[in-house]
Amino acid sequence: MFKKSKFSLLVIAFAMFVGIFVSCAPQAQSASIIGNWKSEWDGYVITEKEITYDDGGYGYGWSGKIEEIKDPYIYVSFEQDGKTLYRVTAFQNVTDVSANIANAYKDEKQTCDSLEEAKEEFTIDNGYFGYFGEYVRN
């Protein structure tokens, strides 16, 4: 009986060690939004410094400098008529192969005069991202 108890304690101690080791192991990082993304109609090229939106030839494409990426938003600056403006792109459900991506747009508003205003105004909660397109990593 004494040998069984030592064995049981040893098994329990081993199980606890494995449980602690596994729970302290680094967790996998979520997939990155950085990359080339393509849908049936349009696409994005997102680097650490720049983003380009290709609208598929409809005349609404754009590119800009990435000011900040803070999940789920990409804050972008660009020049128009000598003035710096800001826009926001949002992303969700990013995996190694797919993502949902949208540009801020509501009531024909899609740019702001300052980064702070863009961060405050262009949010999912404020209704600027009504539709997220489905994209695959290209």
Overall description:
It is a single chain. With 138 residues, the protein is α+β, with helices and mostly antiparallel strands. Helix content is 22%, strand content 37%. It has two helices and eight strands; from the N terminus they run αβββββββαβ. It has helices at 2-24, 115-121; strands at residues 35-38, 43-46, 50-54, 62-70, 73-80, 83-92, 98-103, 133-137. The protein has an eight-stranded antiparallel beta barrel with strand order 1-2-3-4-5-6-7-8. The radius of gyration is 23 Å and the shape is globular.
Strand content: 35-45%
- Written as H for each helix and E for each strand, in order along the chain, the element string is HEEEEEEEHE
Helix and strand composition category: alpha+beta
Number of helical elements: 2
Mean pLDDT: 85
Globally, the shape reads globular
Helix content: 10-25%
Contiguous runs where pLDDT drops below 50 for at least 5 residues: 7-29
Strand order of the largest sheet: 1-2-3-4-5-6-7-8
End-to-end C-alpha gap? 64 Å
> Radius of gyration in whole Å, from Cα?
23 Å
Main beta sheet strand tally, sense and closure: 8 strands, antiparallel, barrel
